[in-house]
């Protein structure tokens, strides 16, 4: 399933989550009932570029204790801080992926 989410500022996200929001995290919110829920951990935040290229920016980490249908933002772990590690895991295990642009 695909939904459109909007990034939330760190300051706004900290109103809900306080110190749980680490520097390597970002929050997103969607319309009612379009955020994270049970079973969504690890789901990506992606951006469609052009000609079929997609960039993954973050992966789902947590949602509000107020429930899936809450209007609270959901927390995601940014992928960029881990890009070297991801690259090493992929290439050291001979996974076939498209080259970087």
From TrEMBL:
<protein>
    <recommendedName>
        <fullName>Peptidase S1 domain-containing protein</fullName>
    </recommendedName>
</protein>
<dbReference type="GO" id="GO:0006508">
    <property type="term" value="P:proteolysis"/>
</dbReference>
<dbReference type="InterPro" id="IPR001254">
    <property type="entry name" value="Trypsin_dom"/>
</dbReference>
<dbReference type="Pfam" id="PF00089">
    <property type="entry name" value="Trypsin"/>
</dbReference>
<feature type="domain" description="Peptidase S1">
    <location>
        <begin position="1"/>
        <end position="91"/>
    </location>
</feature>
<dbReference type="GO" id="GO:0004252">
    <property type="term" value="F:serine-type endopeptidase activity"/>
</dbReference>
<dbReference type="InterPro" id="IPR043504">
    <property type="entry name" value="Peptidase_S1_PA_chymotrypsin"/>
</dbReference>
<dbReference type="InterPro" id="IPR051333">
    <property type="entry name" value="CLIP_Serine_Protease"/>
</dbReference>
<dbReference type="InterPro" id="IPR009003">
    <property type="entry name" value="Peptidase_S1_PA"/>
</dbReference>
């Amino acid at each position: 399933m695909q939904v459109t989410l909007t990034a939330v500022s760190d300051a706004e996200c900290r109103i809900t989550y306080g110190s749980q929001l680490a520097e390597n995290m970002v929050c997103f919110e969607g319309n009612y009932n379009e955020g994270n829920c049970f079973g969504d951990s690890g789901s990506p935040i992606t951006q469609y570029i052009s000609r079929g290229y997609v960039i993954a920016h973050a992966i789902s980490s947590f949602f509000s204790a107020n429930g899936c249908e809450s209007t609270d933002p959901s927390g995601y772990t940014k992928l960029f801080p881990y890009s070297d590690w991801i690259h090493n895991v992929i290439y050291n295990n001979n996974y076939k992926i498209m080259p970087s642009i």
